[in-house]
Amino acid sequence: GAVVSQHPSRVICKSGTSVKIECRSLDFQATTMFWYRQFPKQSLMLMATSNEGSKATYEQGVEKDKFLINHASLTLSTLTVTSAHPEDSSFYICSARVARGRLGYTFGSGTRLTVV
Amino acid sequence: QKEVEQDPGPLSVPEGAIVSLNCTYSNSAFQYFMWYRQYSRKGPELLMYTYSSGNKEDGRFTAQVDKSSKYISLFIRDSQPSDSATYLCAMSASHGNEKLTFGTGTRLTIIP
Q1: Distance CA B31, CA B33 (A)
Q2: What is the dihedral of CA B41, B47, B51, B56, to 10 degrees?
Q3: Alpha carbon separation from B8 to B5, B12, B30, B106 (Å, rounded)
Q4: Which residues of A touch B43 (CB under 8 A)?
Q5: Quick check: A2 and A28 in contact, CB under 8 A?
Q6: In degrees, to the nearest 5, what angle opens at C-alpha B66 toward C-alphas B60 and B70?
Q7: In angstroms, rounded to a whole number, what is the distance separating the alpha carbons of residues A60 and B1?
Q8: How many Å apart are CA A100 and CA A29, to the nearest integer?
Q9: Is B103 in the A-facing interface, judged by CB distances under 8 Å?
Q10: Residue B63 contacts residue B52 (beta carbons within 8 Å)
Q11: What is the pLDDT of residues B41-77, one digit of tens each?
């Protein structure tokens, strides 16, 4: 149980275009979803926290107009990288806290974004 | 100084050996400690979750927390090639919907 499905797993896009990444909680309701970015051989860096039905909270240094987050339902959160540039190429991962009564956070399988 | 320090490795050990992975931290507010395993190009999966100081065992895995030293460890007994992955420590100050602070991860290779 407690599965977060993330799509796509890999995407290549041209510079200047936008890319949408989806995360769905399959067997639980995720009131809060976390979006991370991971560079090669580096740790996960939190980008933003999204709460169902409200605006996302962005970490310092993360451009909210570039990384649009929508959490329209209890089972779906999306991250849209707008006007992507090569420096946006990275591994993006979503995470949600496992349902009440269980511990820990469960992660999606990640999206490898390459901007050419 | 980073809030969480973790030796990135790489660490290579022979199959069957005991593996010791460690993290140190500076924020005394951290009370919840986790270890995640991440295979290449995959999302992290939760291995162990502990609260405050003490030991927790689950199969071949043992997690230790020493809050007085701000030091946590993960031990893997009878290591297997399938344990080869990157291991990340993570911690938070509360159990609620609070962000996790991660270590950089240690890349582990178990040599058959």
Answers
A1: 6
A2: -150
A3: 9, 12, 21, 4
A4: 4, 6, 93, 95, 107-110
A5: yes
A6: 120
A7: 18
A8: 10
A9: yes
A10: no
A11: 888 998 998 888 889 999 999 999 999 999 999 999 9
> What is the phi/psi pair of residue B82, to 5°?
-70, -10
The C-alpha atoms of residue B67 and residue B24 are separated, in whole angstroms, by: 10
CA distance linking residue B96 with residue B46, whole number of Å: 17
Interface with chain B: mutation pick from A97, A105, A112, A114, highest number of B CBs within 10 Å = A105
The Cα B58–Cα B60 span in angstroms is 6
- Which residue in chain B has the smallest CA separation from A110? B43
CA nearest B90: which of A93, A104, A98?
A104
Reading phi first (left if > 0) and then psi (alpha if -120 to 50, else beta), residue A83 is in left
- pLDDT tens digit sequence for A31-65: 889 999 998 878 889 999 998 888 899 999 999 99
**Distance (Å, whole) CA A110 – CA A91:** 6
